[in-house]
Amino acid sequence: MTIRELSKITGFSPSAISIVLNGKKGVSDETREKIRKALEKYDYHPSPKRAAAERNVLVMKYYKNGFFVEENQGFISMIIDAIEGQLRKENIGMTLTVMKSDLEQGLKNLDYEKYAGMIMIGTELRREEYQLMGDIRIPFVVVDNNIPSHSYSSVCMNNYENVRLALLYLRKCGHRQIGFLGSSMDTENFREREEAFRKLVHELELSFDEQHDYKLNPTMIGTHDDFLAHLEGDVTLPSAFFAENDTIALGAMKALKEKGYKIPRDVSIIGFDDIPYASISSPALTTVHVQRKLIGRQAVLQLLQLISDPGFSTMKTELTGRLVVRDSVRVLPQP
């Protein structure tokens, strides 16, 4: 029997039971006595393995190809650092593991008895894989994917609001013709950003021509090579581009400069994420900052709530970022 199972039987929260087991303060004398009697009644004695598990959380990086989890210039590693820091504050250990490709088999092979809960980096999770998450036997929170249409707790950026920040700034700077630099590889975040872009260009009375919709390999070199090919011949570009992330923006900027375009004089670009390279590129990239540290901390807090309260409802948290103005967007002269 686990603490969670005992909690369901007795009605006491796992945290209250844990307090009594460890002889700590935090519950009334009356509650402490009731829990002690329940422990005796059900002959509950936590094994050393189970006791250790209650102070350890599994953090899993899952990826299909690694383009977004491993190669997005430290974006995910900063979230994991924040998760580790918050767990340390809570005096909880962390085990980091990587799961590749076969999610179904990987979840079956996990020894759930070792962990109180799990945080999954879900950036590269596909929609057809979401249902597999229902087989996880411990409390869990998904990070960087809101897992739509499924009752799983998650922490992610608010893609719609962040895209809106970017497009509002372009409009403020006088840009009305906006192009789209997207990924040729699908993720939930990219899907949401493109849907937001297409909706918002109409709401904000901007102009978007389908010929300016470029789907590019989402690595810096891949974007550079793909966009360079698109720039061959007689090409008419919009005054500004929105890029689905900074890696794509920076690769496109490199291609444009090789073709003789001046940024932002000839064309402006705004990114999404605010990765470290964005601030040292030439020109420095205007972008939307995603609150990576807050995402990591919030994931831990939600997981701890799920662990301590079996009846805690699913919570999906979306965090809005902030605009970081640098040098890649030109303010157009007013007519």
TrEMBL record:
<keyword id="KW-0805">Transcription regulation</keyword>
<feature type="domain" description="HTH cro/C1-type">
    <location>
        <begin position="1"/>
        <end position="45"/>
    </location>
</feature>
<protein>
    <submittedName>
        <fullName>LacI family transcriptional regulator</fullName>
    </submittedName>
</protein>
<dbReference type="InterPro" id="IPR001387">
    <property type="entry name" value="Cro/C1-type_HTH"/>
</dbReference>
<keyword id="KW-0804">Transcription</keyword>
<dbReference type="InterPro" id="IPR000843">
    <property type="entry name" value="HTH_LacI"/>
</dbReference>
<feature type="domain" description="HTH lacI-type">
    <location>
        <begin position="1"/>
        <end position="55"/>
    </location>
</feature>
<dbReference type="Pfam" id="PF13377">
    <property type="entry name" value="Peripla_BP_3"/>
</dbReference>
<dbReference type="InterPro" id="IPR028082">
    <property type="entry name" value="Peripla_BP_I"/>
</dbReference>
<dbReference type="InterPro" id="IPR010982">
    <property type="entry name" value="Lambda_DNA-bd_dom_sf"/>
</dbReference>
<dbReference type="GO" id="GO:0003700">
    <property type="term" value="F:DNA-binding transcription factor activity"/>
</dbReference>
<keyword id="KW-0238">DNA-binding</keyword>
<dbReference type="InterPro" id="IPR046335">
    <property type="entry name" value="LacI/GalR-like_sensor"/>
</dbReference>
<dbReference type="GO" id="GO:0000976">
    <property type="term" value="F:transcription cis-regulatory region binding"/>
</dbReference>
<dbReference type="Pfam" id="PF00356">
    <property type="entry name" value="LacI"/>
</dbReference>
